[in-house]
């Protein structure tokens, strides 16, 4: 939405959240949160929908009804995708069948529309919902499971390549080694 220059980003340590965050910003103590017009909003998907509805800029969902319906299906699957990811993080062996199936579903979804490399063809709210988790899953696959998440998945490979050209994403992207170290520490992986 072109808000990078209009918002103030406040980074906090997720492992040691400051007391002021819960007290003054978001009582649920979850991230991210957005304060706008003296109201605080939370939950990532809700925030993106709120931004799409309340700020000028390109629409984050297309007008096409088939794409809107598919977007809702993909957003509904996001919890299942994340669950498979975290289940895989906790497992000591190879990549689980559940995680592989979830990534294969993403590969198929990325191939549904031919008008671009993203879930709905062009960059959308759905991509915003998935990219942080795909990024972390890719780092995890490579750094811990010694596997390539995009291997044999050309749509996912192209998605990762193209999303890394989106300024709004690259400006907020964290260092991959930092993310890997953080995951290893959180899940007790040597």
UniProtKB/TrEMBL annotation:
Every GST N-terminal domain range: 1-59
GO MF entries: glutathione transferase activity
- Domain of life assignment: Eukaryota
InterPro entries, per database record: Glutathione-S-Trfase_C_sf, Glutathione_S-Trfase, Glutathione_S-Trfase_N, GSTL1/2/3, Thioredoxin-like_sf
Q: Which Pfam families match?
A: GST_C_2 (PF13410), GST_N_3 (PF13417)
User: PROSITE patterns from the entry?
Assistant: GST_NTER
**Name recorded for this polypeptide:** GST N-terminal domain-containing protein
Q: Which species is the source of this protein?
A: Aegilops tauschii subsp. strangulata
């Amino acid at each position: 939405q072109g808000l990078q220059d209009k918002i103030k980003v406040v980074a906090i340590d997720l492992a040691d959240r400051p007391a002021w965050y819960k007290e003054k910003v978001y009582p649920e103590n979850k991230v991210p949160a957005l304060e706008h017009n003296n109201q605080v909003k939370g939950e990532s998907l809700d925030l993106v929908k709120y931004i799409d509805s309340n700020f000028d800029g390109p629409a984050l969902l297309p007008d096409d009804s088939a794409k809107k319906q598919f977007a809702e299906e993909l957003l509904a699957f996001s919890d299942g995708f994340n669950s498979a990811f975290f289940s895989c993080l906790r497992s000591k062996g190879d990549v689980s069948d559940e995680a592989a199936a979830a990534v294969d579903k993403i590969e198929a979804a990325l191939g549904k529309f031919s008008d671009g490399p993203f879930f709905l063809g062009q960059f959308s709210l759905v991509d915003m919902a998935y990219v942080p988790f795909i990024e972390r899953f890719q780092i995890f696959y490579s750094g811990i499971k010694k596997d390539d998440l995009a291997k044999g998945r050309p749509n996912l490979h192209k998605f990762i390549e193209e999303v890394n050209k989106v300024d709004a994403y690259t400006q907020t992207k964290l260092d991959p080694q930092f993310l890997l170290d953080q995951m290893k520490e959180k899940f007790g992986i040597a």
